């Protein structure tokens, strides 16, 4: 079925022991935008949001946004 983009923000923040609120303060971005990205509910990825997150967390865009196989994603959802 192809691939789709998935946010890896939750794993990154969890690994650093950082909350969405802390990231909100550090980036100056809106909490709701960060929450949707954290929960992988984002369907659009504004370049200024992605750029600011990468800048503050000192990561590459490929660390934040990853490609996933849609077949595996659908399988996980049906099993969970």
| Percent strand | 5-15%
**What's the mean pLDDT score?**
90
Largest sheet: 2 strands, antiparallel
* Measured distance between first and last alpha carbons: 20 Å
What structural class is derived from the secondary structure elements?
alpha+beta
Low-confidence stretches: 73-80
Percent helix among the residues? 55-70%
Rg, please? 13 Å
DSSP strand tally: 2
Lateral strand order in the biggest sheet: 1-2
Number of helices: 6
- Name the helix and strand elements from N-terminus to C-terminus, one letter apiece: EHHHHHEH
Shape: globular
State the main characteristics.
two-stranded antiparallel sheet, 80 residues, 6 helices, alpha+beta, globular
Topology:
Elements: E1 3-7, H1 9-16, H2 20-27, H3 31-38, H4 47-57, H5 61-64, E2 65-69, H6 70-79
Antiparallel strand pairs: 1-2
Helix pairs in contact: 2-3
How would you portray this structure in words?
This protein has 80 residues and is α+β, with helices and mostly antiparallel strands. The protein contains 6 helices and 2 strands. The protein has helices spanning 9-16, 20-27, 31-38, 47-57, 61-64, 70-79, and strands at 3-7, 65-69. A two-stranded antiparallel sheet has the order 1-2. The longest helix has 11 residues, at 47-57. The chain is globular, with a radius of gyration of 13 Å. Residues 73-80 have low confidence and may be disordered.
